[in-house]
Design brief:
This protein is 30% helix and 20% strand. The protein is α+β, with helices and mostly antiparallel strands. α1 (31-51) packs across α3.
Length: 289
Amino acid sequence: MPEHHPDDATDLPDLTAIMVVDVEKFSRHNDLQQDELAQLIPEVLEDACHRCGLEELWEQKMFPDSTGDGFIIGFAPRLLPHVIDRYLASLQEVLAARTARLRSRGMRLRMRLSVNLGPARVLANVDSPVGSAMITTHRVVDAGALRALLEHSDPDVTMLAVALSERVMSDVVAPGHTRRLKASQFVACPLEISGKDFAATAFLHVPALSGDLLRRGLIGVLPTDPVEISPAPSGKRKKPIAGGTTPVRVIGHGNVTAGRDVNQSTHTTTVHGDQYQAARNMTVRREGR
């Protein structure tokens, strides 16, 4: 083996697409129910691949690993447009098809899903890869923003809340590699976790909108704390927004307009309530109360 010097550059690991899913309120089920749900998670993920014609995604998945209440897979970056265009909607449909049976037995299976792209190092005797891309994917899927999207929607309708990383948005969706989902169908949301030295922008999407997500918009249901919108260390979730204001600053990306009650039919956008920063090339005016 050649001698390695500390000041030598290292080879960049291969770019890998990473998908992490977590099940909402998994711990509220009893032990036997948790066992059943943990076995059901990969089955549902695989079924969604078959439903949308992406068998390749599951057959060629890298470093698959169960987290108990979730699952991790890596896949070839070239599949990202197909995952975004077809797999997300397919997973929503598969989860919805199982809802009635699970509910009758006192169980629910709703998911938060995070998709990222970046270098991922696979180490010997370690099941999951390491690196900043993997860490970011895990932190985003556990963020309060995704949790709020499920909490404020109908549990019998909205089965999935999705967050794309900034790189996935800029490299895949914004340049037009997807066909069914456009940049305007995602909402940019800045995430910061105090004490973790973590900050990122996630792009939120819900395949099946319901409840407060329709009345108030994706950003309108987020926790009120503008700095930390992930769960508090105690595990208690921050109180959801109750009034007509939210201090979360929203960043536009291309056609993405974040905020509730936004009319995107013209280039002049009216926001009812507090004003948000809208996307570029758009005019925002506050309507009188």
